[in-house]
Amino acid sequence: MRRLFDIGFGVLLIPLVVPLVAVLAALVWTCDGRPVFYKSRRMHSMTQDFQMWKLRTMSASRGPDRHFDRAVERRVTGLGAVLRRHRLDEMPQLWNLLRGDITLIGTRPPLPAHVRACPDLFREVLETPPGLTGLATLTFYGHEAAILSACPDTLTARRVYLDGLMPAKITLDRDYNALRTWQSDLRLLAQTALVPLRTDPAPLPAPARHTVNDVLGSDRNSASG
Q1: CA–CA separation, 131 and 44 (whole Å)
Q2: What does each of the 225 residues of the chain score in pLDDT, given as a tens digit?
Q3: Sequence ranges of the domains in the chain
């Protein structure tokens, strides 16, 4: 039933998303050159991967995905920063939705390296397909980049992400999946539709904030010692 809803919703979005992607792709080509699109290998399940599509937001360079590499973040272009801020770079994932790589609501598709590093965390949430959006995605919108950019180096950012951010996000999505309804899914979709219009992220919930701060605090203490 959810797959039929994904297809129907995706088809309804085609007249809106395809022209918008065409305009944004032309902007990327004009401002930053080719390639216009970027594909990233992500996990559909614990054993199956797929190529997830985005508009390119960084200067063109070959290399593996490094979610928290400070050098990679410095490659984000001016236009790319705007696209990321409003999540417009993710519009091409309508194709992934229609293909069945992702569903509308679920945990964001993780990198293979993250699944290998923390298999126990992902095993339960990847029993269902990853999503285009979800509770954790909306909760951490605007916060994740700020938290990682506040880390003094790449190693600290990696630790904060793997030990703080990622478990907090997965816990939110796991708890949501246990209680989700059609009504709650529709509310999340409505909130996602408003993301491009938001200028400031909503406050980070206390449990998630404390989880991340605990990791940051331990790193700061070890650095000072």
Answers
A1: 9
A2: 889 999 999 999 999 999 999 999 999 999 999 999 999 999 999 999 999 999 999 987 655 555 555 555 667 899 999 999 889 999 999 999 999 999 999 999 999 999 998 899 899 889 999 999 999 998 888 788 888 888 888 888 888 888 888 999 999 899 898 888 999 999 999 988 888 776 665 555 544 444 445 544 545 444 444
A3: 2-224
Gyration radius from the chain CA atoms: 17
* Nearest Cα residue to 91 out of 194, 10, 20: 20
Helix, strand, coil proportions of the chain in percent (round to 5)?
A: 60, 10, 30
The CA-based dihedral angle spanning residues 91, 92, 94, 97, taken in that order and rounded to the nearest 10 degrees: -120
Give me the residues paired with residue 43 across strands.
49
Q: Strand 103-105 to strand 131-133: parallel, antiparallel, or no bridges (unpaired)? A: parallel
